[in-house]
Amino acid sequence: MAAAAAETVRVVRGVRDDQLKDPSPCHDWDVRTLLNHIILWTAYSAEQRAYGKSVAEELMNKDFAAEPGFADDYAAQVDKALTAWSDPKAWERELGVMGNAMPAADVAAMLIMEIVLHGWDLAQATGQEYHCPGNVAAVLLTTVQQQAGMFRQYQGFADEVKISADAPAFDRALALSGRDPR
């Protein structure tokens, strides 16, 4: 989680103000909307999930990207989330996800998926590279394989993009999630 978060923090820091209205690979979202989604779910919600709670309602429609220093604020909030997940008790919980109880380890894997996939989306939208270490790519691929059906059902993933079966794990995870790694 820390490695995935560090890379997405780096990408968020690389977003320029003049890019906020640019399109992103995510549905009808521009860069600002994607940033706000990333900040809410991979920082604030990630911290609250570690404590077995949900994100505060007042944050759901906040425009984090409108705040001066939003990238530094995101980095600080990510640190809080990582600290929360570093407590072994965070991993012992069953957490509610869409009305179902789920082991905390599965929720953490989904958070890593969210961090990496949307970090990659943001990098694509803003002309940056996204680097995914092999161990993170392996977790990502496993999680995407397990969750692709559900995410497609709720329109979180597009149809799978066909790529070579021997492509790197990161590229296969991107393709399975409906993103074109090429």
Which helices and strands, and how do they pair?
Layout: H1 2-13, H2 31-50, H3 70-85, E1 94-97, E2 100-103, H4 104-125, H5 134-153, H6 169-176
Antiparallel strand pairs: 1-2
Helix pairs in contact: 1-3, 1-4, 2-3, 2-4, 4-5, 5-6
Let me know the number of strands.
2
- Radius of gyration equals 16 Å
Q: Show unreliable segments.
A: none
Number of domains: 1
Q: Approximately what portion of the residues adopt beta-strand conformation? A: under 5%
Q: What is the straight-line distance between the termini?
A: 25 Å
CATH domain class: Mainly Alpha
Descriptive tags:
two-stranded antiparallel ribbon, 182 residues, 6 helices, mainly alpha, Four Helix Bundle (Hemerythrin (Met), subunit A)
Could you explain the architecture of this structure?
It is a single chain. The protein has a single domain, classed as dinb family like domain (Four Helix Bundle (Hemerythrin (Met), subunit A), Up-down Bundle), CATH 1.20.120.450. It has a two-stranded antiparallel ribbon. A hairpin with a 2-residue loop joins strand 1 and strand 2. With 182 residues, the chain is mostly helical. Helix 5 runs parallel beside helix 6. It contains six helices and two strands, in the order αααββααα.
